[in-house]
Amino acid sequence: MIDTSHIRNFCIIAHIDHGKSTLADRLIQKAQIIDDRNFQNQILDNMDIERERGITIKSQAVTIPYTAAGGEEYTLNFVDTPGHVDFTYEVSRAINSCEGALLLVDATQGVQAQTLSNMYLAMEHDLEIIPVINKIDMAAADIPSAKHQIDHDLGLDADTALLVSAKQGTGINELFEAIVDRIPPPAGIASDPLRALIFDCHYDPYRGVVVHLRVFDGTLKKGMNIRFMSNNSEYEVETSGIFKLSLVEQDELGPGSVGYIIAGIKTVSDVRVGDTITDAENPCGEALPGFREVKPVVFSSIYPVDSNDYDELRSSLEKLKLNDASLIYEKDSSAALGFGFRCGFLGLLHLEVVQERLEREFDQSIIFTAPSVKYKVKLKNGEKPCEEIMVDNPTDYPDEGKIENAEEPYIRAAIITPVTFVGSIMTLCMEKRGIQTNMTYLDEKRVEMVFDMPLSEVLFDFYDRLKSISRGYASFDYDITDYKSTELVKLDILLNGKPVDALSQLVFKGNAYDRAKIVCERLRDEIPRQQFKIPIQGAIGSQIIARETVNALRKDVLAKCYGGDITRKRKLLEKQKEGKKRMKMVGDVELPQSAFLAVLKTKED
Predict the structure, then answer these.
(1) CA 224 to chain centre
(2) Buried b (16+ CB within 10 A) or exposed e, 432-449
(3) Is pTM beyond 0.90 here?
(4) What single DSSP character describes residue 397?
(5) Domains of the chain, with CATH numbers?
(6) Alpha carbon distance 571, 565 (integer Å)
(7) pLDDT, tens digit (0-9, with 9 covering 90-100), for 292-325
(8) Which residues contact 46 (CB under 8 A, 6 or more apart)?
């Protein structure tokens, strides 16, 4: 067993695109865990979508052997963390597995919204924070400004900040020495009952679920009976080991170790991130703090483009669920789109990732309905106390006469932006029903603005517009706070007088007209013309609030009437009109798939 004084557990925390994955590559390359022939960029990001977008979705861990300048051998356990706000809980569990964190600041961008929120997470868990300024090789790098921001915004000692270029490998040796010198070794007692934290897991098609964990106290051995403290399920450990990019078996994992176990667990849903593992025969007194159930915040329905592909879509979702425990789905159906699934996601990025994985990995052609959040609706109940229900699907929304009150989830949004864009960002947030609660000038060039705003307003085009208004310089971070009262209405889209359930949306009453107008205009451009006029209407209950018309294709019945009496022409036109009316009564309007996709585009262009 390794001496705990020679173990260092650390993670890298940063805002998106500050070079976290590139720095991880350099650390792994320097330690020569992998030869140059098999090396590739973003080596810990093993999904194509992660490489393309330059983001980390699934956190990884790797054990790096290091010989210090004094000749002593150390084991450095690096726990990689996702970089997006949707995965904040996973980040907090990864941080909890470490004693130290490298706080990465981009020399060209400075401190941004998630740099701050991730630093506060690290401070909550009493981690030793080492500030690191990355991208010092770039022409636009402003090191004095980055140091000032570390000192002024983060309250850390800028003199201790390390200067590195992850791309070129500059300063990596100094970084390794700082990890050994400044991060404290883990404090754990091998003779105590076993306590280990689950910070992640993945599914292996041949061996079942591989659980990623950090041992705090006690020893984990092959053949041992373990218990998951959140649900009291028990398993026998078949294999234990550490990560060196591949899985490397070890006889036992002692205090401070970061590694994995395989224990015949069938599905990822049986393993909960943040749960505590203990010895079934000699359990520990209490679980490690911080565990909570991860709940979805964004909901959408998925339908196959061809209704015959429903069974394929179901099996694809089952396979995807094996690797993504936070994906929740149940059966759903629509008169317009047939059978499908209602899914819950951690956020919009999670929704996009699931959509792309279904299309790429499983070759599915799918349609997503408009994303929605979960509303609290209180129903009128006469003299009795009001009954409260949760609604995320427009088809489940009760009649307005039955509703006492509706509430929607609010977020605390933190935006860090250059001073130049303050006015236009403020206008955008107020347009999205945001209420400014704080504004802090971080320095003479940058401002942090804090808004309370409804989560539903962020789902549609907010992020795109924020980036275009600020030319990409504003950074955005949010956390969900509580529910607040709202005026909620169900917007129905009628086609030829018939409601299309898949296009229904729950919207704030003040936004209903604008949303209905946009949907009607887009459908008008997408629906092919018929032999009769097609009215497209947006309605709240029985009240029509927006209308567009797809004009009829008509044959020129007057072509053969050159000259002659006007009554003859009129008679032919009236006859045509009657025919069109009869056709409209029996005619059915086919809604093409492109029409659904056009309505669900987030940009209002």
Answers:
(1) 36
(2) bbbeeeeeeebeeebbbb
(3) no
(4) P
(5) 4-182 (3.40.50.300), 195-279 (2.40.30.10), 298-368 (3.30.70.870), 375-486 (3.30.70.240), 515-600 (3.30.70)
(6) 10
(7) 667 777 888 888 877 788 888 888 888 787 667 6
(8) 58, 60
